[in-house]
Amino acid sequence: MLKNFALIVFTILFVASHALSAEPEVVKLAEGVYGFIGKEGATNSGFVVTDEGVIVIDTQGPKELALLLKKKIQEITDRPVLYVINTHFHGDHTFGNQYFKEAKDIISHENTKKNLIERDQQNRGQFKKFFGERSLEGFELTPPTKIIKDTFTLQAGGKTIELAYLGRGHTDGDIIVYLPKERIMFGGDLLYKERLPWLGDGHISDWIETLDKLKDFDAGVYVPGHGGIGDSDVLLNLRHYLIDLQLEVKKYIKMGKTGDEIKKDISLPKYKNWFKYNDWLPLNAEKAYKELTGR
Ligand SMILES: [Zn+2]
Q: What pTM, to 2 d.p., does this model score?
């Protein structure tokens, strides 16, 4: 018993320290444009350094990572943070907001602000499940101060940054951040690279349509919310995954299988090397089943 307990404590400490020791990497994508890329599919952020100040795209969740992001920005520039953009409401992208309070505005879609405020307790619970019971010590909810409904263009210090809400997908308030001159797209969690998407708040059919609209942007570099930087394949592969997931679940429904059976039996070998394949495929299948059957 004691041995088991010690093993559990050791495992928790190891996993927690490992999660934070695998530091995100700062990648320069263009003049003044950087990705802050989590290891092994962990959460990505970005930042744009302009002549006037810095625009931060997603503030990370755990305090250590938010402060690390801040430190990495300060190593590159001594200009202040002008704006923060939250691509969607999930804690791993927004709970670091409190460390960027000097920003003139924290910008998001209206539903992101709403979800952060109205679902606060639920969001905190979800966050602790991922990052541990003590991960929210000192946390203060810091919601967006400026909301957008569809599109918004941010001009700051010589940089143009377009924000757009294209419809429901990973949540009901995802916005993408697009730099037309640099042809760089920060997709938030509308984009995942080589990692199964989290569908807990997602809408699969809408997501596929939203990804189709995303193809209209002339981007060469895509920074997903999770996974490494890539080209338009990031978008196309995730779109294929969502379609394959739906097709496979439809096939099982036709065979008369129940939701629970599908959850247990489904396999999508094409994606077996993506992060979270074993953990999230049953959940993804359950979501697809519910959407397709309306149950
Ligand atoms: Zn998310």
A: 0.91
